[in-house]
Specification:
50% of the residues lie in helices and 12% in strands. It has ten helices and six strands, in the order E-H-H-H-H-H-E-H-E-H-H-E-H-E-E-H. Strands 3-2-1-4-5-6 form a six-stranded parallel beta sheet, with helices on both faces. Helix 1 crosses helix 2, helix 1 crosses helix 4 and helix 3 packs across helix 4. The protein is elongated, with a radius of gyration of 18 Å. The mean pLDDT is 97.
Length: 217
């Protein structure tokens, strides 16, 4: 039962759309210019920027008070949770992988409880064997140790595992460092020139699963 490691944000769930939906609603709530949504999206940096930096940019963009700035990270995280959805095609793909003998296991950078809440609130916990969050285990992708820890937690060997993710510098680089195959979900982006390529490319998680299931079979 080989391991199928999967990223969470923008792989199993569309965090980018959830953040944008929150930003639109937040601007409307404040009576602010709706055009500011693009600046808010850039400040967020796909959720990868350090939160103090994102908060400082949001203060500038929105004219937040010091009190509002102190709480904006909590507001943003809750807004993402409130707007996050999981598509049926993702659940179906997880089901196909499981039926084919694979063991889906989430490997995600982030903080607890935010990542735990995403997984449990959306019912993903019923479709995967388990998950590791970098904040808990003390190492972050691309550090290959997080994959070894995940394999140990799953009780399965790392050999034969695949990683599916949307971030070249964490998901794919981490998989390469761990010596496992990988699928990069491009989300309309080109692969960075000069970097070692993943094993395969896909436009969606469902397509990534189908590529893995049919790989050299």
């Amino acid at each position: 039962m080989p391991l199928l490691f999967v990223d969470l944000d923008n792989t199993l769930v569309d965090r980018a759309s959830a953040h944008r939906a929150w930003a639109v609603g937040y601007l409307a709530q404040r009576g602010a210019d709706p055009a500011l949504v693009e600046e808010m999206v850039r400040a967020d940096g796909d959720g990868l920027r350090p939160k103090p930096e994102a908060a400082a940019d949001l203060q500038r963009i929105l004219g937040l008070s010091d009190e509002e700035t102190a709480g904006i990270t909590k507001v943003l995280r809750q807004g993402v949770l409130d707007n996050l959805r999981v598509e049926q095609e993702v659940l179906d793909a997880l089901g196909r992988a499981t039926a084919a003998g694979w063991t889906p296991f989430i490997v995600t950078n982030g903080v607890v409880p935010q990542q735990d809440l995403k997984i449990t609130n959306l019912g993903l916990d019923r479709h995967v064997t388990g998950w590791v969050v970098s904040d808990v285990v003390g190492v972050r992708k691309p550090d290959p140790r997080i994959f070894h820890l995940a394999a140990r937690q799953a009780g399965l060997p790392l050999e034969g595992a695949w990683m599916v993710g949307d971030a070249h510098d964490t998901d794919i680089e981490g998989a390469q460092a761990a010596g496992i195959n990988s699928v990069y979900i491009g989300r309309g982006r080109s692969w960075p020139v000069g970097l070692p390529e993943p094993t395969a490319f896909a436009d969606s998680f469902a397509q990534a699963v189908d590529l893995i299931l049919g790989w050299r079979s």
